[in-house]
Amino acid sequence: VDPYGFERPEDFDYAAYDEFLTAYLAVLTRRALKWSRLLRADGGLSRTATVKRYVRKGIPLEHRARVWLAVSGAQARMEQNPSYYQQLLQGEGKPDLEEAIRTDLNRTFPDNVRFRKTAQPCLQKALFNVLLAYGLHNQGVGYCQGMNFIAGYLILITKSEEESFWLLDALIGRILPDYYSPAMLGLKIDQEVLAELVRMKLPAVAALLDGHGVLWTLVVSRWFICLFVDILPVETVLRIWDCLFNEGSKIIFRVALTLIKQHQAFILEAASVPDICDKFKQITSGSFVMECHTFMQKVFSEPGSLSMTTITRLRENCRVALLAQR
Amino acid sequence: WQVSLAEKDRMPTHAGSLSPALHLRTPLLKKTSKSKAGSVPAASALPSANGARPARPGTARPGPEAPPNGPQQPGRLSLGGGGDFYDIAFKVMLVGDSGVGKTCLLVRFKDGAFLAGTFISTVGIDFRNKVLDVDGMKVKLQIWDTAGQERFRSVTHAYYRDAHALLLLFDVTNKASFDNIQAWLTEIQEYAQNDVVLMLLGNKVDSAQERVVKREDGEKLAKEYGLPYMETSAKTGVNVDLAFTAIAKELKQRIMKVPSEPHFRLHDYVKRQGRGPFCCQS
Question: Which domain of life is it from (chain B) (predicted)?
């Protein structure tokens, strides 16, 4: 079982992991010292250049919840609306919503001991509450599969329902485009934006997928919907989320582009659609993604420049194109 | 896309399973695949746009003639390394409401296992392969598993078009999943090929106590739309292999057109082979 309660898979490579961890522990220790100093000096974390640099190098686990809450604005909203979360849960129920959430409770992290029915406390109850409260709070979204995995991670990190709720609100309400609303337009747009970026930066891969008529949905929809949960190793996902909360949704494209670029030659070996799907699954495991510190450095160097202006323009173009297709 | 008869999966026998193993790049297989890639014309068993018949669900009958770009006669083109031998490949999609047991059914068929509480919700779309022996021919089913939640339909229905067969599931312990079958059929009618092989499955029949949809209800609905109907349990395995085998037989029969072979009829097969009280005997 790892520090977050996930059981290690049977084929887990302990030797490689230990080697990585030895080096990473030194990094963690150094970062923890620096963060302690920063947090002592600056009571309210503002989004300064220093904080940005620190966040990119990883937030220590003991400060993670606090920093996520601060930089995402979740803390401020929570303080402005002190009993809002409890009120949502005490208010009128919504049977359809509850049923949809309940269907996924047993299917969220069955490999995590803290989500087992036998666990004390069992986090399934917290997961249900957070998802229900969010669905009632944002009725335009309600509940969408994938949110269960995100809320699950938030609960594991914050160990607080209310904080998880406000972080979920920061993600879905402000940081991410509308991935989860019934039309899933934001998801479709961002998949197309990624396709465009790959066409620009990695044309051979784009040509392969286009040549086989593969829609990007097939290979990357889970990357966006689950924000890499259950796709990349836990520690790596948390490092990505550090940047997601602080810098916004652009990081998802950076991660996707880094994964594809690093494995370009491997992907190009694919000769069929199932092959392509398989390769896209395989590139999300192994030492490259496990070594989260190096991985995050690559995420900011490998894809090259990626301005928010470009993303915004591509999103707008793709939105127009998608709406025209209807 | 096209399913190539010569498509070479560079994957070991567990290919298509979800294990993210990274040890698949063996030089031999890589070489083999490269030498073949592009040199063999892709053939598809996908029904083409010809034979445009009225789109209505339930036309589970072979087209009058093979599509012009139809599959080649199997010639063991696909004998390849890694143990993934097959003569012909088809795409099958699993659809139905969230939580009706699509992934469980697929894993039961693929691995013969039912591990309660080990499945996560399927987000988006995923696939697994299984090669079946159908009357001496190796038929590879490429089975696409989809998220059941309604909003994901707009993400997954683009793939219906490429499916040769659809297994439409509901949960016999969940009335809503049964009531939604009509909506699914509308979706299928709009997006799938006109002559897609379609079968209705009532899953979770092991839960006799919690059952709320009677067998007769399932049969009645299936009859109304001219669909074969079976009751399955991913937990006990009842009728699971049969459902997929029936699909494979139907698909193979459609494209083989061997005159000496008696015409295969999916409905009759399902009726004849269905085990226990779970299969339609109307």
Answer: Eukaryota
